[in-house]
Amino acid sequence: MHLATLTHQGRRRLVGRLAPQHPWRLAPPSVTLAEVIAGGTLPWSWSELPIGTDPVPALPYRPGALYGVGPNYPEALTEMGWEWPTEPVLFPKLSSSVIGSGEAIVFDPDLTQRVDWETELAVVIGTEAHRVPEADALQYVFGYTVANDISARDLGERDGQWMRGKGLDTFCPLGPVVVTADEIPDPHRLRIRTRVNGETVQDGTTADMVFRIPALIAYLSRFFTLRAGDVVLTGTPAGCGDFMRPPRALRPGDVLESEVEGIGCLVNPVRGGVRDGTGAGAGCPGYQEAGGR
Fold this sequence. Notes:
single chain; six-stranded mixed β-sheet; 32% strand; globular
């Protein structure tokens, strides 16, 4: 099932549909996506949206913890000049960095001039996981969504680690939907694409992952207890702007599209300045689900 949180008649509501061509159906007002993920069961009753309603997409939910994975695709390792890793490289993405489709990626040009894109398949954990065997790891997955691990490369280089460079407010677009795991029988056969102002800059496939999803979950759970609703970003294919020749970076006025096959496409405008905290992307275009292009 495809699950999302939409603003309907001024209220955030959980909605679901069986496929992009099907109509959205409203869950009861008291039910949230975070509760559904934690409980592992979908609501029994749904009501149809009134004909002609155009609900506004919102952030599906705000994860408690997000785990990033460093270079996890062979060509990305090559373009970054990294050796083949013997184990995954981990880093935190802050919950405060998460925004939904349609919201703006906002950065202060006085702080960073090298803001880069990294479209990734994101795994939504559905059951608490601690020291789980790799063979069982996919049983702990609720579903999948799309993320973009926005990165300020200059801050990362200056700091020698990625906390600031990857943790700034608005630096983790997430959504536009969560697709339950039963709808994606093989998450390692999905195309990943990034477009900047309509130009394709990344085009890869999850088939090329160095460390596949079961290995990532098993590895993470050796060190951290993964809880329902936590999100694991799985790495990005080659094509990041900072490694192009000449290098490229996001600029105010750009529109970034982050797409994973079978899930959907985040659409986020880019703004310069300081985020006002009132929903940076209000009024911006921003919702495309898989099959809806």
